[in-house]
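Posting this for the archive.
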Amino acid sequence: QVQLVESGGGLVQPGGSLRLSCAVSGRIFRPNVMGWYRQAPGKQRELVATITSGGITNYADSVKGRFTISRDNAKNTASLQMNSLQPEDTAVYYCNIQRSGFGSYDVWGQGTQVTVSS
């Protein structure tokens, strides 16, 4: 059973930084895409950032220039460096991994809370 283990959430003041990490537990074929999504209270889950196995990144407009996604293909881990955090970044952040074709899957983590407040 493949699981995603997320860490790094917490409480931070506006303007602060946090780094989220996501590790794959279990043996899987390499994910095509690893990404982070978030869901704020009363809102739908939204994309934050994704990264392909080749290193191509995609960011939501609201986080461009502040957040950086990275991955380690050898370890099947992904990270999200979040700088200049604002109260509107408060949400539960979810890691997601996807693979299409042979050995396909779409797996979500349990989520980690990020709260930006003074």
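DSSP finds no helices and eleven strands in the chain. The radius of gyration is 14 Å.
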